[in-house]
Amino acid sequence: MSRIMLAKLIIDMATYFFVAFGIVLGGSLLGGIAAFLTKQPPFLRMDSLAAQLKIWGLAGALGGTFDSFMQIERVFNEGDISPIIKQIIFIISAFMGAHTSALMVQWLVQGDK
Questions:
Q1: If 101 and its partner were Cys, which of 20, 24, 72, 108 is the partner (CB 3.0–4.6 Å)?
Q2: Nearest residue to 51 via CA among 113, 95, 90, 106
Q3: For the chain, what is the radius of gyration of the CA atoms?
């Protein structure tokens, strides 16, 4: 693998990570503000939203749909393994971003351990 391809892979991984991270963190924070404005417990709402938004952070980072999973299926049918490894790396990177953000929100609001 050349240096340019490796650099592009790392850049894409960071992008997927932080997009998923931002979706979960931003949604939780804004949901907490909405809960405060409607006189509900904001920390409790932020904690529950962080857990609920993890799947949407993953889907949003991967392009808004589950197109990555369809591409994996197509690769299995065609027999070329290289793109499937790349897609799996992107899925793992997006999941790590969403999960890290959810853990950070739980840590900030002292939610479930």
A1: 24
A2: 106
A3: 17
Question: Is this structure's pTM higher than 0.85?
Answer: no
d(CA 100, CA 66): 21
The series of mean pLDDT values per 10 residues for the chain, 113 residues long, is 85 94 96 96 93 91 69 68 80 95 93 57
